[in-house]
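User: As part of a screening pipeline, I want to sanity-check one entry by hand. Below is the sequence and the SMILES for magnesium ion. Please return the complex as structure tokens so I can compare it with the automated output.
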Amino acid sequence: MTDAPFRFPSDEELMAGPNALEEPDEVAADDALPALARAEIVVPDFPEDFRAGFACLVGRPNAGKSTLTNALVGSKVAITSGRPQTTRHNVRGVVHREDAQLVLVDTPGLHRPKTLLGKRLNDLVRETLTDVDVVAFCIPANEKIGPGDRFIARDLEQVRAPIVAVVTKADTVSRQALAAQLLAVNELGDWADIVPVSAVSGEQVDVVADVLMGHLPPSPPLYPTGEVTDEPQAVMIGELVREAALESVRDELPHSLAVVVDEILDPRTDRTGSRVKGAGERLQVRVSLVVERDSQKAIMIGKGGSRLKEIGVRARAGIEELIGRKVYLDLHVRTSKDWQSDPKALAKLGF
Ligand SMILES: Nc1nc2c(ncn2[C@@H]2O[C@H](COP(=O)(O)OP(=O)(O)OP(=O)(O)O)[C@@H](O)[C@H]2O)c(=O)[nH]1
Ligand SMILES: [Mg+2]
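Assistant: Here is the complex for your manual check:
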């Protein structure tokens, strides 16, 4: 190498020699390209009157928001459980139609917060509400309208977007009880529409989609065709572990449980990470279950590790279904004292 200062070549120099910047004629250039490089980038056509936009699902914890989100999308994008506060971040799911695209934002249940985590979750929902085209307020058919619903209804008065009241879990009550609930919901506020639905039987799921899509503005599609969520795979994996843990523990533990994906190692592509002997080509996933106290840690692990094993088996099945290959899942339980109320711990856990 010489230290001669860089000199930009003259036009003559550029046009001479093997790197000449001559305008090649089109046919020749095309022939010179390998077949793959010539593949066209296809911008999908969409009708002129296409609609697209965002719908936010809100409601009390356990109202059935995530189950409805999954039913609308047609595949599992959000975890669900019979315990309140299952959802802890906004989950986006996309419903694709020929004439419209509905981006659902499933949110944590709105509730009276007892911890800093609870407050953060409520704040997240309120922020989301200011930014969507339509809101689906979910109210279960099988529970009397209570102070929680009234509180949310009052909150929603401030929202500019139209609000659709969705009466969920319609399969759990008689026609008569459903009719009574629809009337009660009508009294609760000023709704653009009121729709009963069952995410479990599938009844009226299409109607909910139609009604929400009717409130979307004209817009080109926002997501590529076929993409059902933008959740990163690592987040989905952590959520599936948390769902399995929520299924396994039947006491007050769920609130105190957080999940952290510590490592995902693919032995097919990663030659540097510490590979587990005997795991073969399986994707290696290491996840920590974080609880607030040592006593909870013992509950989570169970007698002789039985509960942790049960959680692992269940979670692994879900993860393998998600990614379509075999997984080696390594679960750890650790304690982070009172993490739900500790700003530093919350930050570490991503809240
Ligand atoms: N029978 C019946 N059960 C339902 C229906 N939708 C939801 N559930 C059940 O209700 C419980 C709560 O459902 P989720 O979808 O997790 O509720 P959520 O509103 O997302 O709850 P959070 O995330 O905690 O706010 C679960 O046990 C579901 O199986 C339904 O249409 N019919
Ligand atoms: Mg949920």
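Points to compare against the pipeline: The radius of gyration is 26 Å. The domain at 233-349 is CATH 3.30.300.20 (GMP Synthetase; Chain A, domain 3).
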